[in-house]
Amino acid sequence: MHASDTPENEFQHEQDAEELDIAAERLALAERVQTLEEELLRNRAEMENQRKRSLRDLEQARRFGLERVLADLVQVADNLERGLEAAEQPGATMESIKEGKALTLTQLNKVLKSQGVEEVDPMGKAFDPELHQAMATEVSTEFPPGTVVRVFQKGYRLHERLLRPAMVVVSKAQSD
Fold first, then answer.
1. 160-169 exposure pattern, b = at least 16 Cβ within 10 A, e = fewer
2. Whole-angstrom Cα distance, residue 132 to residue 134?
3. Which residue range(s) make up the domain with 137?
4. Helix, strand, coil: what percent of the chain each, to 5?
5. Of 5, 141, 158, 170, whose CA is between 20 and 30 Å from 79?
6. Quick one: pLDDT at residue 171?
7. Distance (Å, rounded) from C-alpha 76 to C-alpha 72?
8. 84 within a domain of the structure (yes/no)
9. Looking at residue 160, which CATH number applies to its domain?
10. Which residues of the chain are under the pLDDT cut of 70?
11. Would you state the pLDDT for residue 82?
12. Which pLDDT does position 10 carry in this prediction?
């Protein structure tokens, strides 16, 4: 039997082996922690870059989102100017001025519609306080009470959201 084969030495070898295993495991864990920390830092940097890109994109959309609409509105303004110039020409008739205004209004309505704006024209319909603003009431034998009998100003909605209520006169029953 060797002196190194004593139970104490064997126990020491096992203990040394365990300590080496623990040290190797600690080293592996430390490397894994370092790898995860680096990955976390990269992910944070990537998220920050994405946030900055999103803010930049949002600012670009805010600045240039109306570009197409405004280009269409500039054409409407051009036609209004041409109409004013035409009205000042000798031989301009009320009919030609009226026709030019109608064409320009049609063009403007087309631009509004292309952007999701729709008219609220409630003539002859039941009064709806969500869409209409009553300016007055008047007795009417032609319409039942609570019906819009006159529209002072049309209202407008943008994709189901009210931009401006229609200003209306609402019928009421004749009081005795």
1. eeeeebbbbb
2. 6
3. 116-176
4. 60, 20, 20
5. 158
6. 96
7. 7
8. no
9. 2.30.22.10
10. 1-5, 176
11. 92
12. 79
